[in-house]
Amino acid sequence: MVVVSAWPADLAGERFGALVRDVRFVKRWLLLPRVASTNDELRRLAAAGAEEGTVVLADEQTAGRGRQGRSWHSTAGAGLYLSVLLRPSDPAPAVTRWTIAAALAAAEACRATSGVDVAIEWPNDLMAGGRKVGGILAESRTTGSRVDELILGVGINVHHAAADFPPELRTSATSLSIAGDRRPDRGRLAAALLERIGALAEDLARGGWPEIVADWERLAPGARGSRVRVLPAGRDERAVEGVTCGLDACGALRVLGGDGRMIVVRRLDSVAALGR
Questions:
Q1: pLDDT band at 270 (very low <50, low <70, confident <90, very high)
Q2: Helix/strand/coil (H, E, C) string of 27-72?
Q3: Among the four given CATH numbers 3.30.930.10, 3.90.180.10, 3.30.450.40, 2.60.120.10, the one describing domain 2-218
């Protein structure tokens, strides 16, 4: 089933349908000109029984959000704001694997369609020239220890000019158009992203996590050999400085502390970069 509302030319319904026609993973797609949040819209569809591979895209979000409750600036006509539904039935701790895979898919899709050398900053920030160009927000519904529903929200700054960002973001955010020498096509970017997510979903299902980690680390220069400070989780603990040592089996960041202990970091706000 396909639902299309009024939509800009670079993601017009018929054109987008042609771009994803051969992407087996995509079962249903919904294009909306304006929505509060693509994740919230997809959650409503999931509650009504939507199948894996259902996708919601919006030209503008009025209440887009990132990790830790932060807002995501979603200018109309400028970005790719997309959410995709997965039903992986994985153990809850493994959800981070899907976040890692989604970041890899997004980085590779950006590189392929824009020519920009997009990198990944753990766990799922997309970076270009040292500034943030996109990110992933994973939200799940579980039963016991199993994941029944996983929504991967992807936000990528595509056509933004510097003036499109609020003043407080202009030194930390960028777009593919600013970082590159061409104006990327949002339709082709979305199709490439969905095709790659589908392929990585198959890889995860067949046990291909080690290969995904290797590809992710290739695009994440800070994942190994970077000096970081792991912040204390409680009042009785102290910050520990160490060196990043890649990912563990569930996608958490491993840090070798100065005392020889291997520390597993699962929360982004628990680690701060010190430089290589």
A1: low
A2: CEEEEECCECCHHHHHHHHHHCCCCCCEEEEECCECCCECHHHCEC
A3: 3.30.930.10
